[in-house]
Each structure stands twice: as structure tokens, then as C-alpha cells.
Write a structure and sequence with these properties.
Helix content: 25-40%
Oligomer: single chain
Number of domains: 1
Number of strands: 11
Radius of gyration: 19 Å
Number of helices: 5
Length: 198
């Protein structure tokens, strides 16, 4: 599929963009050594497009490379290029159930108190480690975020979770993650819509 070919090409280009060392030495240059040991160097978000020929949907997942327990996910229908969720146009903010329990769990969540976000049931991801070394959680829980809310808060989106007994806690989705995720979602939607009109 064209989407996967493009994604594969992007991974190949990233792998080939490492400067070649001179004189046949495999030792990294000083700047590269500093970057390799500097834990403050920001890594780009991990974005995966999961398209299987037997599936009626194409899934897009994204998470911070330094925090695999939390991420964004949606599924796009092959037939019309529409986002599929409990409500049409939903994205899922997912997390590892252990992370949620460690924070105190939650009864509901909200971006603004005007709209309560729908919760998602616990789901198992059988393909969590099928795309190389970058793995998403094998089991997730979370909430649904309407497309309009995510796009209106691309600079930063703070979701507040309200447990039954303890203080509320938050998850902040930063610009780099939201931007990379939505860019990929839009590319997948455009590609699928083009395929259905041919």
C-alpha cells in the first residue's frame, strides 16, 4: 500500500541520514558522542501506521519516544477515509492500565468542564511490538477526544482525570506529538479518500 511504502521510505531516509565517518573509523564524531550521551536531547515522537489487507480500517498511533505508556490513536475506514470512534471523528488518548492505576485511576476526564470525555474499555493490542523495537502498551485504557478539541489545542492539550477518592491528575500532550500525529492522520485520510474515488 502506498501509505506503508511512504512510511518505509521515511524510515530508510532517517537511517541513511547519519553522517558517514571518515577514514573507515566507526567511532562517532565528538558532536555525535555528546548527543548520544546527553539525555536532554529531544527525540521525535514515534508514529506508526498499521494497515493490514484483511482489515477494514487503517490505524494510526503516536507516542512520545521517552514515554511509551501514553499515546494517541485513531482508526480510519478504508471505504470512506473517515475517523472511526464511539463518536464519528474521535481520537483515543490511551495509557497503560498500570500507569492509570498508579495515578489513582479515574471515573471521568475532561479538557474543559463543559464536556466530559467518554472513557474507553480496556483493550488488548496484539500488534504492540510488531513494528520493530518501538512498542506500544499491550493493554490500554483511556478516553475519547473529539477531533475538533484536539485540533483546537495543537500547541498543548491538558486532559484532567478525576478519580473517585484522590486528587485529580493530568496528562499533557505537547505540540510535537499532536502535530506529528495529526499530520500522519491527515495523510492517511487523504490517501484513502483518493483510493475510493478512483
Amino acid at each position: 500500500m502506498k501509505i506503508l511504502r511512504l512510511l518505509g521510505a521515511a524510515f530508510v531516509m532517517a537511517a541513511c541520514s547519519t553522517p558517514a565517518s571518515r577514514g573507515g573509523s566507526s567511532a562517532p564524531a565528538p558532536a555525535m558522542r555528546a548527543a548520544a550521551t546527553d539525555t536532554s536531547v529531544a527525540k521525535p515522537p514515534v508514529v506508526q501506521v498499521r494497515a493490514f489487507s484483511s482489515s477494514s480500517v487503517v490505524s494510526v498511533l503516536a507516542w512520545d519516544a521517552n514515554d511509551t505508556a501514553i499515546g494517541l490513536r485513531t482508526s480510519v475506514s478504508r471505504s470512506g477515509g473517515e475517523l472511526i470512534g464511539r463518536r464519528l471523528g474521535d481520537h483515543s488518548l490511551y495509557m497503560d492500565p498500570l500507569y492509570a492505576r498508579g495515578m489513582g485511576g479515574f471515573k471521568y476526564a475532561s479538557v474543559t468542564m463543559r464536556e466530559i470525555l467518554l472513557g474507553t474499555r480496556e483493550e488488548r493490542d496484539v500488534y504492540s511490538c510488531s513494528y520493530g523495537k518501538d512498542c506500544s502498551p499491550m493493554t490500554t485504557v483511556g478516553v475519547r477526544i473529539p477531533d475538533s478539541i484536539l485540533r483546537a489545542n495543537q500547541d498543548s492539550l491538558v486532559v484532567t482525570f478525576f478519580p473517585a477518592a484522590v486528587e485529580p491528575w493530568t496528562i499533557t500532550l505537547h505540540h510535537d506529538l499532536i502535530s506529528a500525529y495529526l499530520k500522519t492522520v491527515d495523510s492517511v485520510v487523504a490517501e484513502l479518500r483518493t483510493n475510493t474515488t478512483r
